[in-house]
Amino acid sequence: MIRLLLLLTLFLTALATKADNNQMLTELDQTIVKRSEFIKAKEDRIALLKQQARAERDSNMLLRLYTDIYTEYHVFKFDSAMYYAEKGYQLALQQHNQNYINRFMLHRSELLFISGLYSEALDILNSIDSTTVEKDAMFYYYFHYFTHYSYKASFANDSVYAPQYRAIAKQYLEKAIAKLSPDEPFYDYYMGEKFVYIDIDPVKAREHYEHVLEKYKDNVREYAMACYALAGNHAARGEYDKQMEYLIRASQCDLKCSNMENSALMSIAMILFEQGDLERSERYINKSMQDAKFYNNRLRMIEVSRVLPQIVTSYQATIKGQNKHLTYALIFISLLVLGLLATAYFILRQNRKLTAKRQELADNNQQLNILNQQLAESIHCQAELNDQLHGLNQKLINTNKRREGLATIYIDLCAKYIDKLGKYQTLVKRKIKANQAQDLLQTISSIRISEEDAATFLTHFDKAFTELYPTFVEEFNALLTEDGRILQKSPTTLTTELRTPNYLQLSFRHKEQGYQ
Fold it and tell me: For the CA atoms of 313, 319, 320, 324, what is the dihedral angle to 10 degrees?
């Protein structure tokens, strides 16, 4: 159970470290983008030192300025660094300043080591009389020998000469460490080198390298050197994520210091190449080659050239494969675009037809609206005519009702008079049968329509006529002058003049003309 928890913890820690390294690689990319800003700051510092040197007349002060300018150019530009190392050496010879003569000879030798001119560098180093080297410079004197043979061992990289060079390098490192003062600014870094190459104690070495990181910021070259050494320390223990972490930190420091003589970025490129991140690997290895060319470091260019073709070839193969996929994708997209264009054309064509249909429908709707409006007007007129017809029908019904009443009155009167005639007929027959012709003649002669019957007849007539024709009197009077108009006793009573047939015919004829 404990072993399982331990494995789980290690797995989670590895995942977290890998995620952190990815974040650090992103930050490294951002730092590379800002490289020009760091170079500009470096060149500004150098320009200021050069300006001071041009104005300086004191030889000792000028030698210090040449030393500072060399230090700035040391891992920035090889030719410029060599120029000021030579210039400082010549000035020191003129001033017979043995301390600076030795220092500038060490500088020249160091630059030749970096460029791969080992024989020339060793000749200069051997030409220095060790008895003339000051005590505080003895460490660097022996450390330059260590550096020289370490470079030769790395360059040889075989099983014959490389071990011999490493053994000699170890001897000189022991001599250098013996001269190392604890007051030396980067004492811990060199002690870390001691535990790597002499005592072979990776734990102690790591402690000293970590002390360097604790003391200094990530803008000095020794910080990058300590990170690079820690990367190798962790790689030896199989802690490759930690190795990548410290390589990234070393590379960032190199970028901030404008250190063109660097190995960390090339190492990252090789690791990323093995991990399959060809895009970053190709970018970083090309950047390393650019730095080597900028610095004019022949040895570094050779080292980069060994791995550059392999990385570039693999990257180009990957790009070629991606381009092939992109070509297929482009063909597919082109076909898709053609299909979309055809679809768009079909849709546009259908839209045009639909627009035409819509316009036709709109025109038809407009015509239909006009027809509907006309129909509405016709319906309105028809309704008005229907209302008028209804009114006329109602009047006609009322008139028919009055006529029916009038007919009823006349039928009733006729029935009464028929009854009377029947009685007269019976009376006549009886008188005739009784031979009472003279009596009958007298009876007939003496019989007259009584006033009561006449009054009843006129009353019924007037009532029936006024109901049938209620406006008769008004319309008749309208035909007369103001002083000739007839006055009624009551609304249902006619005068003798109004009952005259001629007046009635005239009034009815005028009424019929009004209807027409």
Answer: 160
